[in-house]
């Protein structure tokens, strides 16, 4: 299964983040830092960072390995720790599923910029959504 070729959601298109890797228990999104994502200090807004973590962590637990089985999920809890300021031109978020069961899973994620600067970390709890 390779949903990387699926069209992104309108929200993802608006923010400009793209899925670049997805496999069992892992996902990676990248988002160019554009002026409309910046806060008054000229750095990426915390809400944009939280959104990127939420999307990446939520997706990392939805891999099925079967193109006919498209899984969906919902965020139950999201925790974000803002660590540093982005200095590069894009944000890179990698997330891994850390546990869970049939209906709920746990994930952790990390955002760096393209210079390697650690920007944020997060954890979340997600639920598989019934179709």
TrEMBL record:
<feature type="domain" description="Thioesterase">
    <location>
        <begin position="42"/>
        <end position="120"/>
    </location>
</feature>
<dbReference type="GO" id="GO:0047617">
    <property type="term" value="F:fatty acyl-CoA hydrolase activity"/>
</dbReference>
<dbReference type="InterPro" id="IPR006683">
    <property type="entry name" value="Thioestr_dom"/>
</dbReference>
<dbReference type="InterPro" id="IPR003736">
    <property type="entry name" value="PAAI_dom"/>
</dbReference>
<dbReference type="InterPro" id="IPR029069">
    <property type="entry name" value="HotDog_dom_sf"/>
</dbReference>
<protein>
    <submittedName>
        <fullName>Uncharacterized domain 1-containing protein</fullName>
    </submittedName>
</protein>
<comment type="similarity">
    <text>Belongs to the thioesterase PaaI family.</text>
</comment>
<dbReference type="InterPro" id="IPR039298">
    <property type="entry name" value="ACOT13"/>
</dbReference>
<keyword id="KW-0378">Hydrolase</keyword>
<dbReference type="Pfam" id="PF03061">
    <property type="entry name" value="4HBT"/>
</dbReference>
């Amino acid at each position: 299964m390779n949903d990387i070729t699926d069209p992104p959601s309108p929200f993802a298109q608006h923010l400009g983040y793209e899925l670049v890797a997805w496999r069992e228990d892992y996902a990676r999104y990248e988002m160019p830092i554009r002026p409309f994502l910046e806060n008054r200090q000229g750095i990426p807004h915390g809400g944009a960072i939280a959104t990127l973590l939420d999307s990446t962590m939520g997706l990392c637990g939805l891999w099925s390995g079967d193109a006919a089985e498209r899984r969906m999920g919902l965020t139950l809890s999201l925790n974000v720790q803002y660590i540093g300021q982005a200095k590069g031109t894009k944000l890179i978020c990698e997330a891994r599923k850390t546990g869970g069961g049939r209906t709920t899973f746990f994930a952790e994620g990390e955002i760096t910029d393209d210079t390697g600067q650690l920007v944020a970390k997060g954890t979340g709890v997600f639920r598989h959504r019934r179709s």
